[in-house]
Amino acid sequence: MIGRLRGRIVGKQPPFLVLDVHGVGYEIEAPMSTFYVLPHDDQEVTLYTHLAVREDAHVLYGFAREADRTLFRALLKVSGVGGKMALGVLSGMTAEEFGLAVQAADLAALTRLPGVGKKTAERLVVEMRDKLERVGVLAEGSRRAVAASAAPAPDQDAVSALIALGYRAPEASRMVSKVFAEGMDTESIIKAALKGAIG
Length: 199
Description:
CATH topology of the largest domain: DNA polymerase, domain 1
Largest sheet: 5 strands, antiparallel
Strand content: 15-25%
Number of strands: 5
Distance between the termini: 75 Å
CATH architecture of the largest domain: Orthogonal Bundle
CATH superfamily of the largest domain: 5' to 3' exonuclease, C-terminal subdomain
């Protein structure tokens, strides 16, 4: 297995590049995310690689970041996803963006990726959701962003709390909209809404 190569780029024609390693030219397929960060021809570069052995060919894939290769390998285990589609995913968004789209079940974002239809997007969400952290795709900031996007807004929280206290939904919404201002937390909204109702 070839896990990493260091050499000079002597040819680039996406998705292919040729890496000269001590006189041997390795033809490598790479996602656009790797092409964007490659140095100019004749400069040394290190690529993390994945060798796919098929009946009709041996295909070497290369990635600028180890996280991209890890995600690529995880994608290959998803039913119906081959090397070409996995490269398309990594060309269309970063590993972190992909992680966020899967966590949020954002099918619209996933179907914008080359070759990904609605059924494949649904499969990606189902099969990749539990693997993201294990493959290191979700950074701490991404996990916080997912948690934040999943959390209801403070005004919605306040409405729910007032309904739990016995107010009818339209009345609770009206009470909150009267007192709500940007930056208020749930507790402040509830207190102000109750004060307004009493006053």
